[in-house]
Amino acid sequence: MYTTVNENGVLNNYPTEPQVYYAEYPAIWEQRNYVIQGAIAAVFVTTLVLLASAVS
Q1: Could you tell me the pTM of the whole model?
Q2: What is the rounded distance in angstroms from the CA atom of residue 30 to the CA atom of residue 4?
Q3: Is 44 a member of any domain?
């Protein structure tokens, strides 16, 4: 972190910026895991909606 001082004596603190990098495209097995997680989430949300409608 570095600090600057303006002509009125006010301090300005600036954080250090992280190094920028490009994201990599997910591998086939990572894509498969995302599909499985999405399917489980969809079943979970559907179950919650059906349960809520059955209770009300």
Answers
A1: 0.59
A2: 45
A3: yes
**CA-based max dimension of the chain:** 68
The residues, ordered by sequence, that sit 6+ positions from 13 with a Cβ below 8 Å of its Cβ are 1, 2, 3
Residue 43 covered by a domain: yes
User: What tokens appear for 22 in the block?
Assistant: 């490009």
Six-digit token string for 47:
């179950």
Distance (Å, whole) CA 1 – CA 7: 20
User: What single string gives the DSSP state of each residue in 2-48?
Assistant: EEEE-TT--EEEEPPPPPP-PPPPPPHHHHHHHHHHHHHHHHHHHHH
Asked whether residue 53 is assigned to any structural domain, the reply reads: yes
pLDDT tens figures, 35-55:
999 999 999 999 999 999 999
